[in-house]
Amino acid sequence: MKKVTIDQLVIGEGEPKIIVPLVDSSKKELLAAAQKISQLDCDIVEWRIDFFEDVKNPQSVAEFSHELKNVLNKPLLITFRTHKEGGVLPLSDEHYFKIYHTLIAEGRLDLLDLELFMPEEPVAQTVTAAHQKGIKIVMCNHDFAKTPAKEEIISRLQQMQKKDADICKIAVMPQTAADVLTLLDATREMYENYADRPLITMSMGSLGMISRLAGQAFGSAATFGSAGTASAPGQISVMDLRKMLHTLTLTK
């Protein structure tokens, strides 16, 4: 199993790593939030640029990533979550990839979120460009309506591996307790039988909250915690999340 190393952080071993989202819109708000998050016991910060008021200006996004990184002093994941997968801003595919390639060329970041079902050729080009700069790719898929069948969840994670993601991520919405079990069992099977790199999986909402805590037992290498405004339903505060993860740590 490959691990992903960023400075002293190793994703894919030990307790699941905690990722905290930044979802403010203005530079002033983002810097203030980043200052607070820099003091928290979290491992990675995700800047959700679809919330950023100047996101349609790729140069501005790239330039501001330097300011954020300086304040955070933690690994930085940058994400434009598309509208079809739960993001807040409709944007053309062309503009999406333009922002990403400007970030890769001129920004300062450690990881870049890339959606599995974006057009195949630009996805491949973006993965290659990011890797040439030492930027890790978190390839993802989100279903805010339902939980796909176990075989489909596994298939999507395998597709991410084939597209050379460094980390494969899927988040689904449960309608029943059985849906939560489906996500957890798909994670276990993928981890035990097919995965050769870290996975991040979660069942969203209150019903799926257990999946954010029990990742280590099933094979998920990271989870998302909230420092204020959550970026997805079911996120737990960072302070509570760290305590819970530590309590649930598997000892050899």
UniProtKB/TrEMBL annotation:
One Pfam match: DHquinase_I
GO terms, molecular function: 3-dehydroquinate dehydratase activity
Self-association state and partner proteins as the record states: Homodimer.
Active site per database record: H142, K169
EC number: 4.2.1.10
Name this polypeptide is given: 3-dehydroquinate dehydratase
Enzyme class: lyase
Positions annotated to bind 3-dehydroquinate: E46, W47, R48, R81, R212, S231, Q235
Functional summary from the UniProt entry: Involved in the third step of the chorismate pathway, which leads to the biosynthesis of aromatic amino acids. Catalyzes the cis-dehydration of 3-dehydroquinate (DHQ) and introduces the first double bond of the aromatic ring to yield 3-dehydroshikimate.
PROSITE patterns: DEHYDROQUINASE_I
Keywords: Amino-acid biosynthesis, Aromatic amino acid biosynthesis, Lyase, Schiff base
SUPFAM superfamilies listed in its UniProt record: Aldolase
Catalytic activity, as annotated: 3-dehydroquinate = 3-dehydroshikimate + H2O
HAMAP family: AroD (MF_00214)
Family membership: Belongs to the type-I 3-dehydroquinase family.
Membrane-spanning ranges: none
Known pathway: Metabolic intermediate biosynthesis; chorismate biosynthesis; chorismate from D-erythrose 4-phosphate and phosphoenolpyruvate: step 3/7
Organism, scientific name: Enterococcus pseudoavium
